[in-house]
UniProtKB/TrEMBL annotation:
This protein's name: Calcium ion binding protein
Length: 165
């Protein structure tokens, strides 16, 4: 009982936990018959899908295709005995916690009250009387999701135009 309680306070030591997780991931990775880059890419994406579905609340960004291509080139050149260490190093380098940017956070906080205010104002206009039929429970989440999607798309288009020459 004391041992399990000590784990509850501190958790497993980080090196043991990383070793355990990476060993399990590597075993899952090696079980797949990887012959070409597409299979390698699918195996890496499957690992990140497993991460994101298994860990509640935390989501990890998958590495870019260029990083995976570089890893695949190194993977092919690495001898069989050192592939596990190569895989562990790649995962440690490329596993990044997904972060919510400030614009999405502000939009998520500001949009629901703004949607309610807009709905109340629109109900008084004779041209938009039909908006009274839409319940608040449907209107507010829909407006919030649309606002978040537009922020994400706008941000992606803006950053995409900056990134490409």
């Amino acid at each position: 009982m004391g041992m399990s309680m000590s784990f509850m306070g501190k958790g497993l030591p980080s090196t043991q936990m990383v070793s355990f997780v990476m060993g399990t991931l590597y075993k899952q990775f090696v079980e797949k018959d990887i012959q070409n880059f597409d299979e390698f890419h699918m195996a890496i994406l499957d690992i990140f899908n497993t991460f994101n579905s298994a860990l509640p609340g935390r989501h990890y960004d998958a590495p870019s295709r260029k990083e995976i291509e570089a890893c695949f080139a190194g993977w092919k050149e690495t001898p069989e005995s050192k592939r596990k260490q190569f895989f562990v190093d790649f995962m440690k380098k490329c596993v990044n916690l997904s972060r919510l940017d400030d614009s999405a956070m502000v939009t998520g906080v500001v949009t629901p009250p703004a949607a309610m205010a807009a709905k109340r104002a629109a109900e008084n206009l004779p041209q938009l009387k039909i908006i009274k039929v839409v319940p608040d429970v449907v209107f507010v989440p829909t407006a919030t999701v649309l606002a978040l999607a537009s922020v994400k798309l706008t941000r992606r288009m803006f950053l995409g135009s900056i990134a490409s020459p």
